[in-house]
Amino acid sequence: MKKGSVTIKDIALELNISVSTVSRALADNPLVKPSTRAAVKELAKKYHYRPNFTALSLRSNKTKTLGIIIPQLVHEFFAMVIRGIEDFAYSNDYNVIICSTHESYEREVIDTKALINGRIDGLMACISKETNEFDHFSEFVDRGLPLVFFDCICDEIEAPKVVLDDFDAGYKAVKHLIDQGCTKIAYVGGPINLFINRDRLAGYNKALSEAGLNTRDSWIIHCDSGDYDDGMESTRELVQAREIDGLFAATDMLAIGAIKNMKAAGLKVPEDVAVVGFSNWSIGTLYEPSLSTMSQPGYEMGQKAAELLIQQIDNPDQEFNETVVLHSELLIRESSIRD
C-alpha cells in the first residue's frame, strides 16, 4: 500500500474489487456480501482510511459542519452552550467549528467571512459587546445560509433566536432583594447596547416601581465588560458612599468584585448590603458568603440553537423565524438571606 492518504481506489485495488463495491461496503450496503464488507472495513482500519469530506460535500452540497461564533471561550456559560451544541450536533452526524471573537466586532466580521468561505452548512452566533452593525450576518441571509442567534442577539436580521427572559430574571432578582427588606437597591451591569443588559435593567426598574421604591442615577452603573475587575472599579465609589442596602449585578463576577469592595469598606454581606448576581458560575458557591444568583440554562440554549439550525438545513424550502425564550431560576444563597 502507498504511503500517505489512502483512498477507496487503493482499497479496491488491493482487494481486487470495484471502487463502487468498496464505497457500498463502507456504507454497510446490504447488497454487498458480509464477508466483503468485513474485508473492506478491516483494510480501511488497518490503513487509517478517512473519507474525503471535500468530495462528499461537493456531491451532496453539504459539509455536515456547523459554525459557532461566541464572544468568549474562557467563560462557564459559553462552555455549557458549546457542550449543548456539540452534543446535539454530534448525535445528528454534524461536526462543529468554534470561533471566539474575544468581544471584538472586527474579529466577528473576520470569523463570519472565514466560516462562509469554509463552506459550513449553517451558523449559530452570539454577538460581541462591540457589535452595532450587522452587515456581515446579512450575507448569510442573502446566500440562503441557515443562521441562528443565541443569548446576545440582534433584531436587525430576521433569523431564529434562542434567548433568556432577561427581563423576568432581573425582576425576580430585585423582587427577592425587596422581600429581604432592601429599599435602596443598586444595579451594576454590562454594555447597555446589548439587549440582555437592557432587559435586566428593565426588570430591575419594574420591581422597584411595583414596590414604590426609587433609585438614583448614581445607583445604576454600566460597565464595559462584566468581569471581576470591572466589578471592583465601577462600584468603589458606590460602596464608599454607604447609601445602598441591596445590589443586583448582571454577572456573578461583577457581584463578587462589588462584594470585595464591601468587605474592604467594613460592610457585611448580607447584613448591611444584600447581593444577587447572575449566571450561576461555580465560583459563586465557593465564595464567602456564597453568592445568590440567577441561573443561565446554557446547555439547554446550545441544544435548542443546534436543533433550530439543523431544522433549517433539513428543510431549505421552509421559512424559519422562531424565537425560543428560556427562563432563569433564582438560586438563593448566603449573600442575600436576611434573618
TrEMBL record:
Superkingdom classification of source: Bacteria
InterPro entries, per the entry: HTH_LacI, Lambda_DNA-bd_dom_sf, Peripla_BP/Lac1_sug-bd_dom, Peripla_BP_I
GO molecular function: DNA binding
UniProt-listed Pfam families: LacI (PF00356), Peripla_BP_1 (PF00532)
Residues in HTH lacI-type domain copies: 6-60
Swiss-Prot/TrEMBL keywords: DNA-binding, Transcription, Transcription regulation
Gene3D superfamilies assigned to the protein according to its UniProt record, in alphabetical order: 3.40.50.2300, lambda repressor-like DNA-binding domains (1.10.260.40)
Protein name: LacI family DNA-binding transcriptional regulator
Lineage of origin: Bacteria, Pseudomonadati, Bacteroidota, Cytophagia, Cytophagales
